[in-house]
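Structure tokens please, single chain.
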Amino acid sequence: MKKWFSFVLLIAISLVFLTGCVPELVTPENSIDSPAPVSEGGSAYENPAGSGKGTLKLYLTDAPGDFKELNIVVSEIKGHISVDGEEGEEETGEWVTLKEWPDGLAVDLLTLENVSLLLGSMELAPNHYTQLRVFLMEEAELVVEGNDGPDGPTESHTLTIPSSANTGIKLNKPFDVVEGMITELTLDFDAKKSVIQTGNGKYKMKPVITVLSGNYSPGELPGGTGSVSGNVSYYASTETSLLGLAGANIELTGGAYIFANTTTSLAESLPEVSEGDFALLDVPAGTYTLNVFAEGYTSYSGEIVVTVDTDTPVDVVLLSEEPGGMLGIVKEAESEATFIAGATVSVSLTGGIITFDSEVITGKNGEFILEQLPVGDYDLVVSAEGYDDYNATATIAVASGEPYSDLEIGLWPESEEPIEPEPTI
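Here you go.
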């Protein structure tokens, strides 16, 4: 079955095609609604007079363990900025929030084998940092293989991480944010070493995290980068327009790369940003899969290609109602036994908000099924070699989650005068 969207007025999809391999690097992900780092005192965090800023990119990866899942929730990452004291005094400093997730960022660490998830990309004043603190929710979930083996039911265990929510996990890793440079920090979470079996099928967790760092200039990223941006909106049959969808999850995957973001809401948007907008910056050139999903809506998955120094716009429409479908048979008119194989059944959504077209070829017994149709009324056309086209004189209604069953369509041979009865249900 072949399906395609053509989004009118608000929707324009532009995909640029390019062949080639994705470089084996860690993944930048950019959040256009990331909060700026905040300092309680502010003085040490202010941009020194006359200097520019550097970029700090925080990544998370995992050395996997022999588990099915290891789910953690990250709430905040802080950095400690050193401040030189007066002569003869010890070095002091202050803690600043580098990245914060008020509702928590849920991550299954075992999905990060051989890939890295960018937690945040921040523009910061040049400074020397002495430590990081990673704050996790105090409970993690471990999913392991059950007694019946890999094909049987799994077992879930709650793991407590003491003090991780209050004081955080202390990581002694000095690093510098340098003007005009990119500082890359990768938090390598060792799942196997972090989970300890205590006997009697019980487990506990003591996070083991290694910090890897590096500095490079923006021009040193192999292969060059582009960006992906667009808008996510939703369509419902009761609406008269497409509406921007805030909080939709955006995921871009390809090779060693994972990018994650959510669409903006009007409450957090800049004046030039609309509800449902998203942007993924510094994406290495290559071919990716874009997945968009939100609770209560249909999902979207499609392939896109990112090229160097180019923005790839991808606007997506989700459905707020479960789609329906049509099914039936095509046969010769006034015949009970002559079914027509290879006929083309085409439908087009009416109404003008969006256009949706779907097409399918009948099977050997004249049968067809059209699935994932947005709720609404459709024009129906059926054509087959040697027969006159069938054009329904009334639209066919599709309801949410319900196939339009027993649709029977008769075609007249070209030599005969066609009569177009309504399809019987």
